[in-house]
Every structure is written in structure tokens, then in C-alpha cells.
Design a protein that fits this description.
The protein contains 20 helices and 15 strands. A seven-stranded mixed beta sheet has the order 7-10-11-15-14-13-12, with helices on both faces. The radius of gyration is 40 Å and the shape is elongated. The mean pLDDT is 84.
Length: 511
């Protein structure tokens, strides 16, 4: 019989004779460590869950450290320091050498206990002398007792220590001196289960073809399945922002839009694509350092399409398509500066430029959702980074009516039916409109997005036909998420203050 089978058999016999015992007692009776005893109990439970009833209990244990074990064998540091002093005394320098391995606390403890004193009356230097002829090493005796009972050293056992009960206060002092360490041990109380038996009958987990053929399944002991058992770890959960983002993406795809790639070039963008290509002047306040994050490495971008760049420069300086431009000296150095993109419209600009390079223009509907960065003052409603949703439609002869109709359809799918528009200004759209929706919980209209028709000064240098118009709109992901999930502070959506329980437990997003 193997050691495993012998321990399992002896465990059942102990339960049968004693009625119940814990795994610490079981370890002592089996002559093994506690973990091995726990493994034996788990093995029996795995074989037949009805054999034993198991109840968990947690106990605080106090065990000597390596220094404490040495003190239990040789005596406490202060007792050994006392023994280093002969009856006639010892020079302070010699005493320090003799007790250097014990640490300064040993000598200090001797002085505190009034076992030793320092005599400075002689001319030869300070001398350490005994105050008492003999001592009782209580700490050493306590540590020896704890050494001898270290596998079952609970506060109950400590109460039976030598030299009087070893109280929790005593243990705290020994812990402070690093002679004792405190730990919590999880033990298990085992008793007879509803199917207790001294005979171990292995349970069967699988019904095999062979069992069906020979009929052995009729007498087999099948393991019960607990279909109500919950997973040990909760399943993964989407962050509220990702849920709202997924809902936006689903709506765009339902409307026949294709998704624009936002990872080329990624978060770092040149000022040219982010500003200049949108017909935004280089003196615009949004291009200042207090609104935009400029990159120090790499500081500039050089791989810009030269012919397109020259057309953009001419549009800024001289105008075109009925515009007189901005009438200033356009700077290529300013356009080359790298930044953290301030909006995903930079992605739209790249895609529209590619559309203009095709031999034959084809109408399209595109959208993007990704992170953008602004040098904002952080408060309850503003962050330096947030997510922007952008949709655009490029087709012949689109009008403001087409934009209003598309916006009504889009926001209706979001559950916002009472939509209103307010004239606005954007450097790269004309006309431009802010979008407002009535919020039933706040009982007022709130701004939910911005929109407009891209200006000809932006589209003409791209090479798009003159009668092609592009309508576009954008909104953030954070604001609808805050409204949906009841956040008052946008910073609760990011960083260390995110409530992971809310992430797991919040409902599916239906904006």
C-alpha cells in the first residue's frame, strides 16, 4: 500500500474513532506536515464528496524566526549578554566585542531589566558590572516553548506557556524584536459525511463505451456534478467606455459606414494633417502650446506628399475655389511639427486625400472612433485625453438638408429623438452646427456633438471633383458614458480611481 493510500485509510479510521478533528491534529497523528494532511483530506473529498464533511477555520499562529529559534536553544540575547559579564565586571570595549553578534538591543535589554550597569567611576574607562548575581531567562524559556510547539502555536496554546501565560502583548514585543513572526493558517475541521465509509470506493467521472457493453455502469459510483457552482474567478468585463464605443460602432455599421484605420500613423500626427490640410490657419489659437501637446522626439515629420503640400500652401496664402485664403506667409516648419493629434479629423483628412487620388471618384460613408489629446485643465468634465467619434459622407451635391437628415437618423438610433441645431464656427466647415439633445434626467438640452460641411478650400487641394461635398459630425464617447452610467466626475472613468466592481456589474449599454 502506498503512503498516499495509507494516509487516506488512517484518516478515515481517525474520523471514525474520534468523530471529528482538524487538519493540524491530523498532521500530528499522520506524522506529516500540515499541507500534506490537507492534501489527504482533499484527495478523499475528490474521490467521494460525501465521505467527509469539511469546515474551514482560520487560526493565528506565532512562530519563532531564525533568530528566535537560536534564542530558544541558546538563551535570549540579553541572557547571553549577561553571561558575558564576569563577577568582577568587564571593560566596556571588551563587552562590546564579546556581544557584537548579539546586537545593541541585547545590552540595552540587560540595562532595562536592571541586570547590568555601567560604572564610570574608575580612571581606566567605563566598566560593565552585574547588578544581580543570577537571572531568570523568561524570554529564552518562552522561545524554547514556542520552538517545541511551533506546529500548533495558537493563542490557545500560548496561554499554557512556561513562566506564566504568554500573552498577545508578549508576542507583540517579541515580534517587534524580530524574534517571533505572526501568520494566519487556514485549517479544516473534518467529520463524518453523509456517505461516510471506511472503504474507499473510487468515483467514476466518465461513462465509457466499455462500461455500456459490459454493464459495469450499473454498479459504478459516479461523481455528482454541481451544475450550480459559480466560477472561481469572475468572467472578464468590458469597461463602460468600451461598451458605449461598441454601441456607436454597431450603429455606424448598421447604417452602411466603413471604419477608417486610426493606427496609421497613430497618436502622433504632423501639424500638416491635423491643422493645415483642414484649412486651419497657422496663427489659430488651437495650435498654441496651451491647447496642443507638441512632441520633442521626433519633433518633426518630413514624409509629406510634396505636390499636395504645395496646393495646401497656395490655398492658405492665395486662396482658390472662390476664396481669397488667409493672405499670410505659410510656414513649412510649422506644418512639419509633430503633435499628439487633437482630433480624429486628421484621420478623415488622410482618407479624403486618398479618395481624391483615385482615378474615378466613388461616394463613400466612413467613421472612426479613437483617442485624441488636448492640453486641457483637468477637472470633473475635462481630461487631457478622450475618445472622439467621427462620421462623414462624401457624395455629389450634398446640402445642409442631407446633413440634418443624416444627423436625425444617427441620433435617433442612439435614442435621442428631440434634436436641435445651433449655428457655430469651425475653421474647416461652413456651414457649421452644434447639436443639442434633450436629456430627460437632467431636464435640459445638452450639447452632444458638432457638425458641418467641409469647406471647398479643404477639399479642392485633395483633388476631389468640384461638385463633391463632404458632410461630417463628431462627438465624444465620455459624455454619453457619464450620462448613461451616472458618473459625476470624468476622472472616475480613467486611472486608479476606477471602480472595478462597477466595471463588472454595470449593465449592457443601450444609449
Amino acid at each position: 500500500m502506498s503512503d498516499r493510500d495509507a494516509n487516506r485509510k488512517k484518516t478515515l479510521e481517525l474520523v471514525d474513532s474520534l468523530g471529528s478533528l482538524d487538519t493540524l491534529e491530523l498532521a500530528d497523528k499522520l506524522g506529516c506536515d500540515h499541507q500534506a494532511a490537507v492534501g489527504t483530506v482533499k484527495s478523499l473529498r475528490a474521490t467521494d464528496a460525501d465521505l467527509l464533511t469539511v469546515v474551514e477555520k482560520k487560526e493565528v499562529h506565532f512562530q519563532p524566526t531564525d533568530e528566535g529559534q537560536e534564542a530558544g536553544e541558546k538563551g535570549s540575547p540579553e541572557a547571553r549578554a549577561f553571561a558575558a559579564v564576569p563577577a568582577e565586571g568587564i571593560a566596556k570595549s571588551d563587552f562590546d566585542k564579546a556581544t557584537s553578534a548579539l546586537g545593541k538591543m541585547a545590552a540595552g535589554q540587560c540595562m532595562k531589566n536592571k541586570w547590568l550597569k555601567m560604572d564610570k567611576s574608575g580612571g581606566a574607562g567605563p566598566v560593565v558590572k552585574r547588578v544581580v548575581e543570577s537571572i531568570e531567562d523568561t524570554v529564552g524559556a518562552q522561545l524554547k516553548f514556542m520552538n517545541d510547539n511551533k506546529d500548533s502555536m495558537t493563542d490557545t496554546v500560548l496561554g499554557k506557556g512556561p513562566c506564566g501565560p504568554i500573552t498577545l502583548d508578549v508576542c507583540k514585543q517579541l515580534i517587534k524584536r524580530q524574534l517571533v513572526k505572526k501568520s494566519q493558517i487556514t485549517a479544516y475541521v473534518i467529520s463524518k459525511g453523509p456517505g461516510f465509509s471506511l472503504t474507499i470506493k473510487e468515483q467514476v467521472t466518465d461513462l465509457t463505451p466499455e462500461m455500456l457493453l459490459d454493464g459495469s455502469w450499473k454498479n459504478a459510483n459516479f461523481r455528482k456534478f454541481n451544475l450550480a457552482a459559480a466560477p472561481r474567478q469572475p468572467a472578464g468585463a468590458l469597461h463602460p467606455l468600451l461598451k458605449v464605443r461598441s454601441e456607436f460602432r454597431r450603429i455606424f455599421l448598421e447604417m452602411g459606414f466603413s471604419e477608417m484605420p486610426t493606427n496609421n500613423p497613430g497618436f502622433i500626427e504632423s501639424s500638416f494633417w491635423n491643422f493645415d490640410a483642414l484649412f486651419q490657419p497657422q496663427q489659430h489659437p488651437a495650435r498654441d502650446a496651451h491647447d496642443t501637446f507638441f512632441m520633442s522626439n521626433p519633433a518633426t515629420s518630413q514624409n509629406l506628399p510634396e505636390d499636395y503640400l504645395q496646393r495646401v500652401k497656395k490655398m492658405h496664402e492665395q486662396g482658390g475655389s472662390g476664396s481669397i485664403g488667409y493672405r499670410y506667409d505659410w510656414s513649412r516648419d510649422e506644418a512639419n511639427k509633430n503633435i499628439l493629434r487633437t482630433h480624429t479629423t486628421a484621420v478623415s483628412t488622410r482618407m479624403l486625400y486618398q479618395l481624391g487620388q483615385q482615378k474615378e471618384f466613388k461616394p463613400c460613408k466612413m467613421f472612426s472612433i479613437d483617442r485624441v489629446f488636448r492640453n486641457e485643465t483637468l477637472d470633473a468634465t475635462h481630461l487631457a485625453e478622450f475618445h472622439q467619434v467621427e462620421g462623414l459622407v462624401a457624395d455629389y451635391n450634398l446640402t445642409l438638408g442631407n446633413l440634418v437628415g443624416m444627423l436625425n437618423l444617427f441620433f435617433t438610433k442612439l435614442g435621442m429623438t428631440d434634436i436641435k441645431f445651433k449655428p457655430a464656427y469651425n475653421p474647416y466647415t461652413e456651414p457649421s452646427m452644434e447639436i443639442f439633445a434633450y436629456h430627460p434626467d437632467l431636464k435640459k438640452e445638452v450639447e452632444v456633438g458638432n457638425s458641418g460641411i467641409f469647406r471647398p478650400e479643404m477639399l479642392q487641394p485633395m483633388g476631389l471633383p468640384e461638385d463633391v461635398c463632404v458632410i461630417a459630425w463628431g462627438l465624444s464617447v465620455e459624455r454619453p458614458t457619464m450620462i448613461k452610467y451616472g458618473y459625476n466626475n470624468i476622472r472616475d472613468l480613467f486611472g486608479a480611481s476606477v471602480d472595478l466592481k462597477l466595471v463588472r456589474d454595470n449593465p449592457m449599454c443601450r444609449v
